[in-house]
Amino acid sequence: MLMKTLPIHLEPAAHPQAEACASCTVRHLALFGALGDAGLERIHTLIASPRVDAEQRVYGRGDTTGVVYTVRSGIVRFERVTEGGQRRIVRLAGQGDLIGQEALLRQAYRDDAVASTPVTLCRIPVPVIDALSAQQMALIRELMRRWQQALDDAENWSSELCTGPARRRVLKLLQLLQGHADERGLIWLPRRDQMGDMLDMTVETASRIVSSLRRDGVLEALPPQHGRLDGARLHAELMHIDR
Amino acid sequence: MLMKTLPIHLEPAAHPQAEACASCTVRHLALFGALGDAGLERIHTLIASPRVDAEQRVYGRGDTTGVVYTVRSGIVRFERVTEGGQRRIVRLAGQGDLIGQEALLRQAYRDDAVASTPVTLCRIPVPVIDALSAQQMALIRELMRRWQQALDDAENWSSELCTGPARRRVLKLLQLLQGHADERGLIWLPRRDQMGDMLDMTVETASRIVSSLRRDGVLEALPPQHGRLDGARLHAELMHIDR
DNA sequence: CGAGCCGTTGAGGGGATTCAAGCTCAGTGG
DNA sequence: CCACTGAGCTTGAATCCCCTCAACGGCTCG
Fold first, then answer.
1. Which residues of A touch B163 (CB under 8 A)?
2. Nucleotide D30 C1' to residue B228 CA (A)
3. Which of A82, A221, B111, B221 is the most buried (most CB within 10 A)?
4. Tens of pLDDT along A173-186?
């Protein structure tokens, strides 16, 4: 059932990375934001910036590649297979999020990480972080902060996206996706079966609700897999359901 | 809606803690297991071992007491209130688990932590950990390991306990509780409304399913709030549902 | 003993699933 | 150019699971 994964990210690697790091647009968001220029100088040759197409795997459950990633742009989803054999999406990661932290502990990845949109990453070999963290307390703080962020996201997911009537769960998902909207205000609108895997409902139910939200002017669908939300109406709908 | 919390844990504190730490029965499980005797020696006077009754709060969401805990015995549950105003239980912690890590980052607690059974804790002021971690790399590793453990638990929760038919969710919960069984093989059997808050179902549904499982010989209820499972039948039931 | 909490069970209704059919659209090849 | 195909989306009808509303019994406690 589990497919073998091939590392997607055998980067040409070179000096270009020097400027890439220095001028990284998400550096303030990313893990190494905790480092000064001097710290960055020592390591940028070891960092790659791979690009992953939508629906391609970043890494697979069970892999031990010894690499962590920062998401520079796009959305990554974490998938698991239930013991019952069902695919479940348990969390999303967006710009600035750290993914694959398990590797820091020499542990295998817990989930399949799949690009939901085209994704750009910052690929960081674990030894790099180990070496730095021996001296840089700030980096360790930053690591812990991100771990806690992931934990908080996961708990929010199960309390907001796994409970209540189907319409509410869809609205909550859209609200979350709005937080990852691009500069034009467009969101990634998952396929209906993916929504089903996230919200524990059938394709048909997801489709019915999305259609209903379009009729109500909450959501505008812009195929393929994009959409635009009316924030006010979305909020009003949620208020209405929560009474 | 949020209640003010009073610190439960103003310990008499004294030398007795010296032996308490050295002879701690869960020391190999606990955070400071990463420390040698020497390390322990320096800090045991700062550690308290409070006891919390069932249904008492360990800490509340929003508190900033600057303390983390290790669970020495018993079960702690993490509660949140949905934006819709519903109480949700998002995770459980048992023996050896670290709770309240947010405090290490000077952040407020994210959830209400409530004792589900009588609980004994190890109460550790954050400055103690800060001071140690500046030198002890092993402690930091251990911290990270626990953070990852919590994350994994949270994701498992939403993929296994939030999805599928009601009967399956209850069985999954019982399976999880079996992992926290005491030495006599007894498990904590939540009240029906608590099961509802964990599994997103009504009291009535929870009650009906528990009753049904008792009739089927999967579960033996031993009031108050205790039970015994027939592991084989539980497993068989799950197999049957997952087909 | 009455009050209140907790658990249980029943009847009825509603929301989600199941099963089924038809739709749009992109890609393919005649 | 257009039939053909398959993937994704939508909609309808029947069914079923779970929720809602309601009543009742056991138990503890004032």
1. 82, 86, 88, 162, 200
2. 33
3. B111
4. 999 999 988 888 99
| pTM of the entire predicted model | 0.82
Per-residue model confidence as pLDDT tens digits over B160-176: 899 999 999 999 999 99
| Residues B78-92 pLDDT 10s | 888 887 777 888 888
Best of B82, B129, B158, B162 to disrupt the A interface (most A CBs within 10 Å) is B158
> Rounded to the nearest 5 degrees, what angle is found at the Cα of A23, between the Cα atoms of A17 and A24?
80
With CB atoms and an 8 Å threshold, state whether B242 touches A150.
no
Task: List the structure tokens of B165.
Answer: 């038919």
Secondary structure string (H, E, C) spanning chain A: CCCCCCCCCCCCCCCHHHHHHHCCCCCCCCHHHHCCHHHHHHHHHHCECCEECCCCEEECCCCCCCEEEEEEECCEEEEEECCCCCEEEEEEECCCCEECHHHHHCCCCCCEEEECCCEEEEEEEHHHHHHHHCCCHHHHHHHHHHHHHHHHHHHHHHHHHCCCCHHHHHHHHHHHHHCCCCCCCCEECCCHHHHHHHHCCCHHHHHHHHHHHHHCCCEEECCCCEEEECHHHHHHHHHHHHC
Name the average pLDDT for chain B: 84
A165 by Cβ neighbours in 10 Å (0-12 / 13-18 / 19+) ranks as: exposed
Is the Cβ pair B148, A82 closer than 8 Å?
no
Which of A78, A82, A155 lies closest to B110 in CB terms? A155
Chain A contacts of B160, Cβ < 8 Å? 82-83
Taking contacts as CB-CB distances below 8 angstroms, the residues of chain B near A238 are 83
Question: Which nucleotides of strand C lie under 7 Å from a protein CB?
Answer: 6-11, 15-20
Angle at alpha carbon of residue B10, lines to B6 and B15, rounded to 5°: 170
For A128-150, the pLDDT digits (tens) are 888 888 777 777 887 788 887 88
